[in-house]
Amino acid sequence: MNTPSQAQVRRAIAEAQTIVVKVGSSSLTEPSGHLDPQRLNALVAAIARVRLMGGRVVLVSSGAIAAGFGTLGFDKRPTDVADQQACAAVGQGLLMAQYEAAFARYGLRVGQILITVSDTIAPQQYRNVRRTLDRLLDLGAVPIINENDSLASNEIRFGDNDRLSALIANIVVADALVLLTDVDALYTAPPSEPGSKRISYVPNVEDALAKVQVGGTGSNVGTGGMVTKMEAARVAAVSGIPAVLTCASNAGPAMMGDPVGTAFAPINDRGSSRRLWIGFASHPQGTLVADSGAAKAVRGGAASLLAAGVVEVKGDFAAGDAVWVDDEQGNHLAKGLVGFDSEEIPQMLGRNTAQLKRFLGEEYAHPLVHRDNLVLV
Ligand SMILES: Nc1ncnc2c1ncn2[C@@H]1O[C@H](COP(=O)(O)OP(=O)(O)O)[C@@H](O)[C@H]1O
Ligand SMILES: N[C@@H](CCC(=O)OP(=O)(O)O)C(=O)O
Question: Mean pLDDT across the chain, nearest whole number?
């Protein structure tokens, strides 16, 4: 695809039918661990304007922990996971109450969806998330999403909402992703560093990643810093979705396509949201080792992984889990959702479809990983 000009990217954002807006903790809360209703209301006003003009907006909002820790008597964001989970349980309610009241002033309803990684990699939950989001949007509501911090385990969690927002943009087939934070744009280095320069347009985020010096959070409530925002912009770009990054007070102009913040061009045509989800969100639970013929077929991009071409299975997983597909040298070729439990697979290895049917029955005469569930890495 040809690289679009900045004006084209800004126009695409202005014309977006479906927009995912992600807002960070520092844009909604006080450092003392309480909500800042004024800033939250200003954000809601900008989103409501787009919504009332007919746009479909999904809001991915951080801020549960940051809104809850002051209320629970902590003087700074706790580091203990159980404390954070308790703060999130309190703060999430406060956050939603505030959003509910703020959107109601414009006659708009909100719907809360809390997501954990483990919920969303299973095909059925993925479909449920997608269906609920689509229905909320069809009904004119504004879905508000956060990670389910009170339930997420420390080992498997998004941890930041930046990447989650890019995955949500895929799920709802968004036309634009708007990342709102406490800095007005991406800079060539963390803005605290002397000489860092504002970047208004990134035609290729993968090239930019090599050139820009990105750092962690600048506030005491944010988590991901610019690293995860760049990753979100990259996921959006490779998914064919233009993105803009700016401060929350620029939300309105950013969604109108005004030249604020940093615009990121898409670098691919749109992909299948399901495949992107597998590629970005899933955590492989095991490995299928492909022989050289199967490795070549998988690398070609259009083939399913058949039992006949698999020489080894590693790990303990259930049908529907994500697995790595490796070559015999141990290189990762692809990630996929496997169709069988790990203990069923050894008896299937090396057998073609006719043999699987004859020896094991009809239900085994299927690929280990169907090509629709396979994503090259
Ligand atoms: N190259 C960079 N350009 C802009 N900001 C950067 C850069 N590197 C690091 N940062 C920091 O990232 C911070 C935003 O991330 P974070 O604090 O996690 O915000 P949020 O709570 O909105 O997710 C900025 O305040 C800034 O200090
Ligand atoms: N899910 C957490 C926030 C995680 C997060 O991404 O925070 P931030 O870096 O402020 O966007 C919460 O609501 O407190």
Answer: 91
